[in-house]
Design goal:
single chain; alpha/beta; three-stranded mixed β-sheet; about 180 residues
């Protein structure tokens, strides 16, 4: 990661990654997208407490091109990192969250790095999407949620979009995909 990278983070949680990127690596062009409105407020507090100013936090669910903008049902769980768009397993509460087209966000922010930790949503996120400008995708794979077929689908979609798995940085379920340059 470079200080001049432009990052979009899906599933921003409590703001740890965005705060780390800002305070430790000097990345100042960050957009955090988080479905849980309580976490969005918390992220804002974490950013302010660490003087991570000017970072954008959106309360939404980023979707591919085939999904129409509108609302998605989001299922809140304890611990918070288990919350997802999947109604299974048991959840504490469900809420409606705005959907925003990820490709639009990528264009507007001119992002070149995408960070994705969306509790199983990675299975279909890359099926019908324009990853304009993206060079690296840091992806948390949730095998317990999507299984081997879901992983295969996700990896196949990224491969079709011109990305390759990079084992040098990947570890377990945290994987890096890099755009393959055309020769």
């Amino acid at each position: 990661m470079q200080a001049d990278d432009r990052v979009v983070e899906l599933g921003a949680g409590i703001g740890f990654i965005s705060t780390f990127l800002y305070t430790q690596l000097g990345v100042s062009k960050l957009t955090c997208i988080e479905a849980n409105p309580s976490l969005c407020e918390f992220i804002g507090r974490v950013h302010r407490a660490n003087d991570a100013t000017g970072l954008n936090v959106l309360n939404a669910v980023a979707v591919g091109a085939s999904e129409v903008a509108g609302k998605s049902r989001f299922y809140l769980r304890e611990p918070f990192w288990s919350s997802s768009l999947d109604p299974e397993p048991e959840y504490k509460k469900s809420i409606e969250v705005d959907r925003i087209p990820l490709s639009d966000v990528l264009r507007e922010t001119r992002a070149n790095v995408l960070i994705v930790d969306i509790e199983g949503g990675e299975r279909t996120l890359f099926n019908d999407i324009d990853l304009v400008g993206i060079q690296k995708i840091y992806l948390e794979v949730h095998t317990r949620k999507i299984g081997l077929r879901g992983i295969q689908s996700c990896f196949d979609s990224l491969s079709a979009l011109g990305f390759a798995y990079d084992q040098r940085v990947s570890c377990g379920g945290s994987v890096l995909f890099r755009r393959v340059r055309k020769q």
